[in-house]
From TrEMBL:
One of its GO terms (cellular component) is plasma membrane. It holds the Pfam family ABC2_membrane_2. This is ABC transporter permease. GO terms for molecular function: ABC-type transporter activity. Keywords: Membrane, Transmembrane, Transmembrane helix. The chain crosses the membrane at residues 21-40, 77-97, 118-140, 152-176, 183-201, 290-309. The keyword Membrane applies.
Length: 314
């Protein structure tokens, strides 16, 4: 483990010297801090406009949870992309340049290299994301938007975990790939598949299984949600929704159409949530289970990549 930490520290120190990491840090800080400022400004302007038009300033108070719901869609796109770009060459880059053999000639095993790269590149992605989010928390006490600190910290932790999952996926592919091109195609292709194609394929697959096995409607709903939650992007979105949703059922149903305020949830979400409420939330759709799906992605990606890398002829 100490050897892996040495690799991780060196990898992280090398990465933070690059302009790319500085640019990523600036993007995260700008997105989160200025996003929080503009959100609070819009809320303030809406309240003033309502007061000037004779409307009531009361109603539902706006807190930072509304900002997190707005921000989560952008995070789902940006953080995995940054993780992929930062990690796809983690191992194959060293292998192609010949420095991997030098690294392995030191008291580092192949397992130490993969684990060290995972930790090092994970820090490269997580540190600016977490730093940007924590800095954005400081905006709300200066505005009329109430800060929900526990939910904000939980959102920050989930965002860091999402970044680590895609770092693990890219590092695993980088370790398993034999060329840089294959590492790029594998990492980018995996992200696009999870983002674009996974959910589109989920309902047709479940529909065919439901017809073939004569499932009850409630079983079909649970199967559809479970398959979508096995996607790390879906798991992250649902856990973020759970921070402010009125019920766990609505949080799980959010994967059918994105995170929305429960009062404005789409018809499909409402139907799915009602089915879950009537039948009860099974253990595999609880918050703990969905969090476990993310952790499994992290662990399996690294383990599979290492298993291939261990047998590779360098």
């Amino acid at each position: 483990m100490n050897s892996a930490l040495v690799v991780a520290r060196k990898d992280f120190e090398d990465a933070i010297r690059s302009r790319g990491v500085l640019l990523v840090s600036a993007v995260f800080v700008a997105l989160f801090v200025f996003g929080a400022y503009f959100f609070a400004d819009q809320v303030s302007q809406a309240a003033q406009a309502s007061a000037q038009s004779g409307g009531q300033q009361g109603g539902d108070p706006v807190d930072s949870d509304a900002f997190l719901r707005t921000l989560s869609s952008g995070v789902t796109l940006l953080v995995p992309i940054v993780a992929v770009v930062a990690s796809y060459s983690a191992v194959i880059g060293e292998r192609a340049s010949g420095t991997l053999k030098l690294l392995l000639s030191l008291p580092h095993s192949r397992r130490d290299v993969v684990l060290g790269k995972l930790l090092g590149r994970g820090g490269v992605v997580a540190v600016p994301a977490v730093g940007g989010l924590l800095l954005s928390m400081l905006v709300f006490p200066l505005t009329s938007v109430a800060l929900a600190p526990l939910n904000y910290v939980a959102f920050t932790a989930l965002t860091a975990l999402l970044g680590l999952v895609f770092v693990a996926l890219s590092v695993g592919i980088s370790a398993a790939a034999s060329t840089g091109r294959r590492a790029v195609v594998g990492s980018v292709g995996s992200y696009l598949f999870l983002l674009v194609f996974w959910n589109r394929a989920a309902d047709p697959i479940v529909g065919r299984l439901s017809d073939a096995l004569s499932w009850e409607p409630a079983t079909t709903v649970k199967a559809s949600l479970t398959l979508k939650l096995l996607n790390p992007l879906g798991a992250y979105s649902s856990l973020v929704a759970a921070l402010s949703a009125e019920s766990t059922a609505l949080a799980r149903a959010s994967v059918t159409g994105g995170i929305q305020l429960s009062r404005r949830a789409g018809i499909v979400q409402q139907i799915y949530a009602q089915r879950l409420t009537e039948e009860g939330i099974p253990f595999y759709l609880t918050d703990a289970a969905v969090l476990a799906y993310l952790l499994v992605w992290l662990a399996v990606s690294a383990v599979v990549g290492y298993a291939v890398f261990r047998r590779a002829d360098l």
